[in-house]
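P.,

For your records, the input lines for the assembly:
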Amino acid sequence: MPELPEVETIKNGLANKLHNKIISDAVINRPNLRTFFPDNFTENLKDKKLTAFKRRSKYLLIELDNDYILISHLGMSGKFTIFSDNEDYPKDKHDHVVINFTDGSSLVYNDIRRFGLMDFVQKNELEKHKLFVNLAPEPLTQDFNTDYLYNILKNKKTNIKNAIMDSHIVVGVGNIYACESLFKCKISPTRSCNTIKSSEISKLIDIIKETLKEAIASGGSTLKDYRKEDGTMGYFQHSFKVYGREKEKCTICSSKIERIKQQGRSTFFCPECQK
DNA sequence: AGTGTCGCCTGAATGC
DNA sequence: TGCATTCAGGCGACAC
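Structure tokens returned:
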């Protein structure tokens, strides 16, 4: 389940290996992922050079030398793999997109659950694209600060965990990092937004930034030393304090970690530490 | 307008 | 054993 740090790491890995490569041809093996591929998807990729690799929220942005950007979201299970040989792809039934380069290498997109998507947008139209027009600030920028978040949360009645996962408030904080950040701040995930004090919000922002930065650094170092035959760039095992640890002992107070459902999603927290 | 729920999808895990 | 159900989750669409 790639969250912002994983997407950032994958973006850097793709940039290192694919910068300035030229597409010889592209193949899609089905008409859609979560959404349909745009018309002329493969035709628009043919003969294009990959000129830059960026990220906004959890979207990968691959700039082409024809004024367009290839937008890619990995959803839950999307994976990019680079192959340097000249074998024929796809090889797996979930290899949905194959992009071949003029040097004989290939980039394969595999996505078991097909929650991912791909689209094109003109470079100067990115912020107007329907997927981007309503996106909140990036968590690692100055725009995500105490004043900003306090003013949004002070009139909200929904729970704080739901709020920090809301892409209209801040992007890139998924279920794992929402749970982990709230634990580090000792804030209960069930608290109503309008009860969170300014000092708590300040700490929450610091913790979210710190948690994401640590995960990016961890992913980066993992990627650097990554050696695997198929060149897979995937997901990195981080150590979690509460996520996925239902009924295990809290590392701080030894109470049992609880799991509850919020908006249909599992939330893990320590009922003693988090108030 | 703000808030909560549903559906998309596969495969692993669990239940009877 | 084997079939059916549950669960995981980002995020747009929809309902209230």
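Two observations worth noting. The first strand of chain A starts at residue 23 and ends at 28. Helices of chain A lie at 4-18, 41-45, 146-153, 160-164, 175-185, 198-224.

Regards
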